[in-house]
Amino acid sequence: MRKVSFILVFVLMALMGCVEPIDVGSVASGSVTTSGILVIEASLTDEAKSQRILISRSRSIQSDSTVNVEEDVLFNPNTPFISPQGLDVDPEQNAIVEVNTSIGERIVFMESEPGIYEAPENFTAEQAIGYTLNITTADGENYASTEMRMVGTSDINALYAERTQSDSGVDGMGIFVDTSDPDNESSLYRYTFEETYKIIAPNWRPFEFEIIREETEVIFDSNGDVSSILYPDVRLVQKAREEQVCFKTDPSQDILLLDASGLQGGVAKRNQVRFINSNNPILSHRYSILVRQMAVSFEAFRFYENLRNFNQGGLVFTQIQPGPLEGNITNESGQNKVIGFFDVSSVSSQRMYFNYEDFYPDEPLPPYFGTVTCNRFLAPILGNPERDGPPPPPNEQCPQPLVERIKLGLVEWLASNDDEPGVCEGPYQVTPTICGDCNIVGSNVVPEFWTEE
Fold it and tell me: Which domain holds residue 317?
């Protein structure tokens, strides 16, 4: 099973009172202390998919005299996750996780990977049923949420893209959602998305290097005289895997909310959920986005709104005051802190595709990924004076030779150096690996949902 990085990037805070700063542990040189803050992301939906609950525990990392660690923590409720700077988090394993319903059902979530708890495949949340989350950790602490119910339904009327400009005048692509609530059942929404894009390595070639000999070998005859000299050498072989076309899927990184309660008829149009700078390489070929719209309760909306405000304010860890950020999950048996929100939502989702040329006809592609320049070619020496160009001037050395670069995975074959090699040049032109192998950026596995139509 593919390993998933699964630490939630929550704003971690101790619920010690609304004006006290956070105690991230005693300061000790190079030490690691456990703060004991349980972090929970739990959202049930009416989607026919595996429902998941993610549980982790914060762990502060103190800096020593050689490492300056900033305790700067942002919250991302949409993804399983990345370890925040200045903090680390551990998966909370061997917990008992269950959801109890108002009609007497008990749904047990089993741990599929450390810290990831999944419900039976056939479980979907339903309207008019109340749900309560109960968690017992391995150390015997009991946590429970308030009862939550769906608030109406969620429907996306339209999902579309337009070439537009940001508020600061930057050219790019806007992704917009139209939604409506004619029955006035739900008017508070949270959005997440996953964007998938096609990657084509600009300098891909069907052949790659295979090292024949790494170092110079001197062969002696029976008299002890030099019989021959074998210099470093390589050959070209057919590539064994797909390296030209890849795909990458990225989750949303922002807290996206919409309050449509003040709109006439509950109709919201041109709600922008994503803006992509026209120089962003994810637009270069074919782009797809799956947008999920969740109808959420007032309590959930307020919780995520407060978290968003903290994030946008750029507050550091020790400045966060927990009062406004309290969720609906409490510790019923101890003093260990907990942060998180258990929600039950109706979800509507739509996917759309577009190609770069649909909006940027006859315009150059955005710069490729990374900081390298893919149109700059090198011809490092092979280490064979019979095939390399002239040596450098006295007291100078040529840059790293070809074989060493190949061993380090730094270069891909591009072409033969048909011109007579110059000083410190070898017989092959090469390109940075990221420019010749798309797997450096994405994966050569085509997503199941992908279509070129």
Answer: 32-150+298-344
